[in-house]
Write a structure and sequence with these properties.
- Keywords: Decarboxylase, Lyase, Pyridoxal phosphate.
- This is Lysine decarboxylase.
- It comes from Marinobacterium aestuarii.
- Pfam families: OKR_DC_1 (PF01276), OKR_DC_1_C (PF03711), OKR_DC_1_N (PF03709).
- The structure is a single chain.
- By secondary structure, this protein is an alpha/beta fold.
- It has four domains: about 140 residues, Response regulator (Rossmann fold), CATH 3.40.50.2300; about 220 residues, 3-Layer(aba) Sandwich (Aspartate Aminotransferase, domain 2), CATH 3.40.640; about 180 residues, Aspartate Aminotransferase, domain 1 (Alpha-Beta Complex); about 100 residues, Ornithine Decarboxylase, Chain A, domain 4 (Alpha-Beta Complex), CATH 3.90.100.
- Helices cover about 40% and strands about 15% of the residues.
- It contains 25 helices and 23 strands.
- The strands form six sheets. A seven-stranded mixed beta sheet has the order 6-13-12-11-9-7-8, with helices on both faces. Strands 2-1-3-4-5 form a five-stranded parallel beta sheet, sandwiched between helices. Strands 14-16-18-17 form a four-stranded antiparallel beta sheet.
- Helix 1 packs across helix 5, helix 10 packs across helix 15 and helix 17 runs parallel beside helix 19.
- The radius of gyration is 30 Å and the shape is globular.
- The termini are far apart.
- The structure holds pyridoxal-5'-phosphate (PLP).
- The site of pyridoxal-5'-phosphate has 11 residues, from helix 10.
Amino acid sequence: MKFRFPVVIIDEDFRSENISGSGIRDLAEAIGQEGVEVIGFTSYGDLTAFAQQASRASSFIVSIDDEEFGDGSDGDVEKALAGIRGFIREVRKRNTDIPIFLYGETRTSRHIPNEILRELHGFIHMFEDTPEFVARHIIREARKYLDSLAPPFFDALMDYASDSSYSWHCPGHSGGVAFLKSPVGQMFHQFFGENLLRADVCNAVDELGQLLDHTGPVAASERNAARIFGCDHLFFVTNGTSTSNKVVWHSTVAPGDIVVVDRNCHKSILHSIIMTGAIPVFLMPTRNHYGIIGPIPKSEFDPETIRQKIADNPFARNAVNKKPRILTITQSTYDGVLYNVETIKDILGSTIDTLHFDEAWLPHAAFHSFYRDMHAIGSGRPRSDDTLVFATQSTHKLLAGLSQASQILVQDSKNRKLDTHRFNESYLMHSSTSPQYAIIASCDVAAAMMEAPGGTALVEESILEALDFRRAMRKVDDEFGADDWWFRVWGPDRLAEEGMGDRDDWVIHSGDRWHGFGEIESGFNMLDPIKATIITPGLDVDGSFDDVGIPAAIVSKYLAEHGIIIEKTGLYSFFIMFTIGITKGRWNSMVTELQQFKDDFDNNEPLWRIMPEFAKRFPKYERVGLRDLCSEIHEVYRQYDVARITTDMYLSKIQPAMTPADAWAKMAHRQVERVAIDDLEGRITAMLVTPYPPGIPLLIPGECYNKIIVSYLQFVRDFNGRFPGFETDVHGLVREKVNGEDHYFVDVVKN
Ligand SMILES: *Cc1c(COP(=O)(O)O)cnc(C)c1O
C-alpha cells in the first residue's frame, strides 16, 4: 500500500544558485529517483507549526551550512545551533522516532553538542558520498520508521485489504464489488472509497484474529492499548460505551443485587439496571441553577450513608445480600466535573465489590499529569485490596475513534483478578457476532496515537486551546466593558494569563460562588477545562432571572444556521468541547460567530434576514426581531420559574413503587396504559422519562410521578405549543393530536 509521507528538507539554500544549494538539490533528486516524495523548505517559519509536519513526514533532513557558522566564533555557532536545537525539541515533544538527519560539511560535525547528536539518525557529509548512496540510506531509515507506525491490528488489516484475495465470506458486498453493479451503489463506492470496503471483512478471516475471542492481532492490539492506558486488561468494543457499560454490568450484577448508581447517569446504565434486574440505590449529585450537574457530595459515598439509603429503600432493605455489587458514577459529567478516584476508593474500602467509572468523556485523562488521580485507571495507580475497578471510555468522543469505538479498562485488585474467560461471556452477550473492522482498527489507532510523548502533547494542546478560548472570551468581555453584555464561559474566576496555569485553579473549592454548588467538599472534584459551558445572559447562578435574557436554544439555532453545531444546549447555557481534533480555526470561528450574534441581537435583526432557513421552516418568526424573540421566550421561562422547577424536580424525592425490571415486565406484558400528563401524579412510570436538554433521565421505570414533575411536563406542553421550532423534547412522552390540539401522554403501569 502506498502512503504519502515525504522526506522533508530544511535548507536555506534549497533554491539558491550556489554549491551548497546544488548539493542539497542533487540529494533531493536522488531521493525522488527512488520513488519517494521530497518537500524542500528554506526556513522553519513558526517552529511549533513546522514541527507538526512530523505527523506527515517520513524523515527530516536539516541542513547546517558553513556560512551559518560565520567565522566560527562561539556566538555564530550558538546562533546556528539554536535553530536546530529548537526544531529538534519541538519535534521530539511529539515524536521520539521520526528520523532526523543533519546535513552539512565534514568539519562542522565537531561543533554539534551531544544533546543534539543524540537525537539524530545520522550526519550526512556533503560531497563525501554520492547522492544516490545517501538517498538510499535515508530512505531505508524512513521506511523502517514508517513500518513501525501501525499498531498490530491496523497493520494486519492493511495487509489483508491490499492482498486482493477472493472472498467467499460475509459481508455480501465482497470487498465492495456488489456496489459496482448499480448506479447508487457506484456512488456509495466512490464516496467511501475502495479501502473502506476492502477492509470491511468478517471474522472468518483468520489472519486478523477475532475480536470476540480476543485472539491474534486483535488481542495484540488490546494488549498494546492496555499498556498505553496503564491498565491490566483492555477490551475493544465496537458498539459504543452504551454496550461497554452493559458488558461490565452483566459480568457482575444479577437479579436482586443492590447497585449504587449516580442519579444522573447515562441511560445505558439505567438500561443495565433493567436488564440485570438490579435494585438501584441512587447517589444524588448537586446541581446549580444554570442546570449544570455538579458533583455527588463526598458524604454520599460514605458507607454509612449508603447503608442508610439501602435501609430507606423498600426493595433494597429486603434484599438477601446487602453488600452492593457495583457502584457506577459518571466520571466527567457532560459539563466536565471530575472526581478524585483515590479518595473514593479510600472512603469505600472493601464495602463494594466493583467500582465502575463511566469515563465516556474522559479517555484523555491518563495522558497528562493535569488529571492526576482525577480518572479511574492509569499506570502506577495504587490497587484496592478487594475491589475491581472498571472504566468504560468512548474512544470516539474525545480521541480519534470512529463512532461507536469504545473500550473497557480493568484494574485488578490485590486479592481478586478479573477472570477474563467468565468476563467474556458477558462481552459476547452484548456484542454483535459481526463487528465492524474499521471500528476495531480505529480503537487500535486511537490508542497508538496516545503513546507517549505524542499523546501527552495532544492532550496538552487541547487544554491549551481550551484555555486560549476562555482567555479570548474574557478579552472580548473586557473590551465591551461593564455596561455591555457578553457571553461568559463557566469556570473558576482565576485564569492564568498564559500557558496551563496551576491545576489547582480548576479544583472545586467549597463556597466559591462561580460553581453554584454551595458548600461542597474542597479538593474532591475538579473541572476539566476542555469542556467549556458557555453561559448566555438572563439567569444568574442563584436561579434569579434578569430583565433581559437570551435563551441558549436560540443561540444554538443561530449558530447551526451559520455552520456551527453545538453538542448540548441547556436553558441559558450550551457546551462545546476541545477534543484532540480541535483547531484554532474552529474556536476562533465560535468567538466571531458569537460576536455576529451579539450584533444581530443588539440590532434586533429580523429572523428572515439572519436565520433564513429557520424562518422558512417556521414562518411565524419571519418578521420577529432576534431580541424580541429572545425576550418572549425569556419571559415564559421567567413566568414558570423554569430554572428552579428543573433543579427542584431533579432533586425531588422520588419513590420507587417497583423495581425497574418489574416495571419493564409490565411493558412487555402490555399491562400498561397511556395516561394524559395532567393525570399522572402518583402513577408508576413504565417509561424512562428523559428531557432534552439536559438529556439526563428524570424518572426510571417503576418510579412514581410527583407534583413537580407533572408541573414540569405541563410547562413543556405549554411551551412547545407556543414556540414551535424550540421544542423541549421529552423522551418517553407520546404526543398525539386530539381535536387538532397536541396532547401529551405517558405509558404507566396499569392500576
Ligand atoms: C455518551 C455516553 C455513553 C455512551 O457512549 P456511546 O459510545 O455513545 O455508546 C455512556 N456514558 C456517558 C456518560 C456518555 O456521555
